[in-house]
């Protein structure tokens, strides 16, 4: 498989101003994250809220300026690009947002919303834009008459499909799905996920799928990266990760997924304490404050990301082959 | 391919026609808007067209017929100099409405631009808003008098002075709603597409601030007429013999117990204008808001 984008040592620090003359605090939202997304796959990014998964997605589109790091696409580092160069990358990278209610301009018709993307990228003329819009609306399950509707006339799931259509209309390479189904009803979730998988095949798409719902991520992802406090702690193929999680945090996370069978017993790993503040992250391994197996080395030394057999990567001192 | 494009063209045309008829339906469904527009059209006709057809001059004095009650000859009576109140109200309305309209449009436009820009650019925000705070700290009339005193009293200067006075109020209102809109996800979506700042500001943020803007503008129109009246009274507005609703009212105030018609008629005219404008503004806001689309097919 060919890598589509390679993210290397991505960092995003937010500075917090405490007022004039006081020391600035630094929030390490993303602290040294590296991963590769291959062409045609779905890469899931999971973690608790506030662990930096959405921030990672947004830095790739330069909605948030990264502090340092690289993101290689087509042999070029897009984080260093000027606006003009970036315009072409933006056409290839699209985003589907979490909140279906605020992601569509309430004053614009659906057709206008979709055509806006084409106008920004200067594609086609007036008629061909309309044609493309009607075509894409059909692809996501709408009729021609929906072209003139306003967003408030649609339900959450329908709006999310419109959001997907807005991403698809530019025929992109990568779609960053930022929790695309977490605001939806469970029955609607499956509908949207099925549509996502359908268009992935027909448009030959790659997804970066950001979510906190493990069952959704398990269903759609080929590979999964688990994030904790701005770090990727483990990365593996989906099946491997769920069958044999190696990192203690992943183990705890997976044991927290509800089991569908009531009599099936499973040991639940309960983590003690709260997720530490990214304002003042723990020394050494960021997870050591809550890790049931933590030893001395965990407190003093930050574990390196080590690659094991079959390409899975874990950042933990204690994991052995 | 040719076939397809013709079909979409037809389709689009048909859809637009459908939408137009829907708009017309929505317009007539909205009773407030219909009533408000009728009132404004009527007043507009009286004030802008009628002066070409009535013979009586609002400036001609007839000292023999002072303080005459309304009659068939003088419909609204005569004032302290024997001038015809009817023609004064009509002519004065022209001045008042044109000034009100001009001030509303100018301060609405600049307020919108300043408000939207200061919401979008954080660095501009501090400069523009402190400037607006400074202007708002003065009482409106005092500020207008100060500006008029430096520029001299004539109707063009009244427009400029009142525009300066009212622009910060619009800018404040627009800014506060633009700040909310700026944080919406659809703006982020546009940024991720690489839309230019101008495009986001003019085509996406500004249209979404329209409802509070319209409300504020109807207030300003009414306020302008009243402030202009106060200015005229203080001698800093429309110079004396030329009528405006404001200075007719103030002339009449002195004789309100002897000649009620001098205040009643311009007062009613002012009331109807402001009422019509408020109804029109409210209706327009509802018409432009897709959420209040009650008259569905």
From TrEMBL, chain B:
<keyword id="KW-0472">Membrane</keyword>
<keyword id="KW-0812">Transmembrane</keyword>
<keyword id="KW-0813">Transport</keyword>
<keyword id="KW-1133">Transmembrane helix</keyword>
<dbReference type="GO" id="GO:0055085">
    <property type="term" value="P:transmembrane transport"/>
</dbReference>
<comment type="similarity">
    <text>Belongs to the binding-protein-dependent transport system permease family.</text>
</comment>
<feature type="transmembrane region" description="Helical">
    <location>
        <begin position="32"/>
        <end position="54"/>
    </location>
</feature>
<dbReference type="InterPro" id="IPR000515">
    <property type="entry name" value="MetI-like"/>
</dbReference>
<dbReference type="Pfam" id="PF00528">
    <property type="entry name" value="BPD_transp_1"/>
</dbReference>
<feature type="transmembrane region" description="Helical">
    <location>
        <begin position="97"/>
        <end position="121"/>
    </location>
</feature>
<feature type="transmembrane region" description="Helical">
    <location>
        <begin position="155"/>
        <end position="174"/>
    </location>
</feature>
<protein>
    <submittedName>
        <fullName>Peptide ABC transporter permease</fullName>
    </submittedName>
</protein>
<dbReference type="InterPro" id="IPR050366">
    <property type="entry name" value="BP-dependent_transpt_permease"/>
</dbReference>
<feature type="domain" description="ABC transmembrane type-1">
    <location>
        <begin position="97"/>
        <end position="281"/>
    </location>
</feature>
<dbReference type="InterPro" id="IPR035906">
    <property type="entry name" value="MetI-like_sf"/>
</dbReference>
<dbReference type="GO" id="GO:0005886">
    <property type="term" value="C:plasma membrane"/>
</dbReference>
<feature type="transmembrane region" description="Helical">
    <location>
        <begin position="259"/>
        <end position="280"/>
    </location>
</feature>
<keyword id="KW-1003">Cell membrane</keyword>
<feature type="transmembrane region" description="Helical">
    <location>
        <begin position="128"/>
        <end position="149"/>
    </location>
</feature>
């Amino acid at each position: 498989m060919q890598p589509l984008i390679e993210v290397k040592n991505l960092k995003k620090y937010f500075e917090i101003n405490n007022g004039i003359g006081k020391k600035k605090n630094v929030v390490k939202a993303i602290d040294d994250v590296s991963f590769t997304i291959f062409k045609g796959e779905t890469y899931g990014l999971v973690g608790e809220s506030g662990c930096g998964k959405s921030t990672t997605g947004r830095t790739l589109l330069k909605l948030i300026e990264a502090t340092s790091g690289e993101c290689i696409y087509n042999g070029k580092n897009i984080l260093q690009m000027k606006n003009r160069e970036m315009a072409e990358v933006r056409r290839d990278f699209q985003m589907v947002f979490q909140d279906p209610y605020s992601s569509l301009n309430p004053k614009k018709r659906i057709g206008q919303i979709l055509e806006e993307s084409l106008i920004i990228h200067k594609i086609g003329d007036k008629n061909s834009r309309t044609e493309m819009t009607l075509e894409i609306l059909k692809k996501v399950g709408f009729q021609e008459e929906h072209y003139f509707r306003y967003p408030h006339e649609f339900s959450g799931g329908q709006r999310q499909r419109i959001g997907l259509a807005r991403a698809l209309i530019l025929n992109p390479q990568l779609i960053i799905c930022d929790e695309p189904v977490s605001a939806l009803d469970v029955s609607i979730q499956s509908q949207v996920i099925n549509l996502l998988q359908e268009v992935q095949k027909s448009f030959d798409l790659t997804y970066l799928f950001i979510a906190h719902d493990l069952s959704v991520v398990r269903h759609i992802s080929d590979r999964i990266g688990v994030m904790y406090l701005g770090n990727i702690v483990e990365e593996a193929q989906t099946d491997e990760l769920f069958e044999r999680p190696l990192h203690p945090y992943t183990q705890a996370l997976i044991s927290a997924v509800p089991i569908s069978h009531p009599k099936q017993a499973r040991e639940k790993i309960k983590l003690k304490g709260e997720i530490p503040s990214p304002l003042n992250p723990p020394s050494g391994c960021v997870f050591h404050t809550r890790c049931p197996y933590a030893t001395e080395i965990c407190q003093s030394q930050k574990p390196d990301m080590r690659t094991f057999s079959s390409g899975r990567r874990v950042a933990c001192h204690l994991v052995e082959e | 391919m040719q076939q397809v494009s013709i079909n979409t063209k037809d389709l689009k045309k048909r859809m637009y026609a459908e939408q137009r008829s829907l708009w017309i339906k929505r317009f007539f469904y909205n009773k407030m808007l219909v009533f408000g527009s009728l009132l404004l059209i009527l007043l507009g006709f009286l004030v802008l067209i009628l002066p070409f057809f009535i013979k009586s001059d609002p400036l001609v004095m007839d000292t023999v017929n002072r303080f005459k009650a309304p009659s068939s000859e003088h419909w609204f009576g005569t004032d302290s100099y024997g001038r015809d109140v009817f023609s004064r109200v009509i002519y004065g309305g022209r001045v008042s409405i044109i000034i009100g309209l001009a001030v509303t449009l100018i301060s609405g436009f600049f307020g919108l631009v300043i408000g939207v820009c200061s919401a979008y650019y954080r660095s501009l925000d501090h400069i523009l808003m402190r400037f607006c705070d400074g202007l708002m700290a003065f009482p409106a009339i005092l500020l207008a008098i100060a500006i008029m005193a430096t520029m001299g009293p004539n109707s063009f200067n009244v427009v400029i002075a009142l525009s300066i006075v009212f622009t910060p109020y619009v800018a404040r209102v627009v800014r506060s709603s633009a700040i909310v809109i700026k944080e919406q996800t659809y703006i982020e979506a546009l940024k991720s597409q690489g839309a230019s700042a101008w495009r986001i500001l003019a085509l996406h943020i500004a249209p979404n601030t329209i409802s509070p803007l319209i409300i504020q503008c109807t207030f300003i129109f009414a306020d302008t007429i009243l402030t202009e009246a106060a200015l005229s009274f203080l001698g800093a507005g429309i110079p004396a013999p030329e009528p405006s609703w404001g200075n007719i009212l103030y002339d009449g105030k002195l004789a309100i117990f002897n000649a009620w018609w001098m205040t009643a008629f311009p007062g009613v005219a002012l009331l109807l204008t402001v009422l019509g404008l408020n109804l029109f503004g409210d209706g327009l806001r509802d018409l432009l808001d897709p959420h209040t689309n009650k008259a569905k097919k």
